[in-house]
Fold:
Amino acid sequence: MAPSAKHFKKRDAILHCLQCSTAHPSAESIYAQLKPQIPDLAMGTVYRNLNLFKEQGLVMSVATVRGVERYDGNTCPHVHFICTHCGAVTDLHEVQVGPELNAAATGACGGRVESCQLTFTGLCRECYQRKESGESA
Amino acid sequence: MAPSAKHFKKRDAILHCLQCSTAHPSAESIYAQLKPQIPDLAMGTVYRNLNLFKEQGLVMSVATVRGVERYDGNTCPHVHFICTHCGAVTDLHEVQVGPELNAAATGACGGRVESCQLTFTGLCRECYQRKESGESA
DNA sequence: GTCTGTGCAAATTGTTTGCACGCAA
DNA sequence: TTGCGTGCAAACAATTTGCACAGAC
Structure:
């Protein structure tokens, strides 16, 4: 009855993993998280489904951090923060990109703007505090 | 006398190539551009210097487009546009990120914000026009 | 002599792909 | 029987790295 029978078990698990996480996981970490529950999961499957989801617009690529691609199951436009020290990617829902920027970009590029990503980089709270206390010690 | 004697010939050439280009080249394309003038240039050298420049803050990484990293010799903050069709990366100097966003991000992340990148994706003028005329034909 | 920049080629690593199998319709 | 999702392992491509040498000081 339900279309998500046995046939889509892994696909659903991967999507669910992405949509329920705010860590913006990499393919590798999705695999690591799912592997215990689904022992016969293969990396190829993770990558294949990830690319499928991207095509379908269910998932987007946030950034490539230290050579590995990070994904986001939340496709509503929002701002990201990347910690250069620990590699964490977090959402900054408090920061908003005004529509006027989009309009300006459309005018400036002369073509069609489809999406917009604002990303801040720096030190996250944990790494910042650790660094401060380490240096002052 | 000048420190940039023979010893820094390739390093200088790579940096110059980046700073004079607005195409946000990849390591590969820097190599391709320089190779005719400097036949004994090696990819390893390009990558090594690129990483050095990044550390020194002379150059920044703009984005990873289709799996290849793109660099920018212009480190003044500015907005980018990436064409999903041809992979071109261009500057949008007309669009500006206000300082209030930076402040908001600093507050929201709780750590330290070091840089900010606003990137639009879509179709550049050429690809957009080509697509339009192709479809309406 | 020492230090730094580099060529070269091998190694590493993230990602993709071909093939064969198994379940669902 | 046909089609799709998948495991597995090989293939790929971008990037990094170890080693040895050459020129600068």
Summary: Chain A has a mean pLDDT of 93.
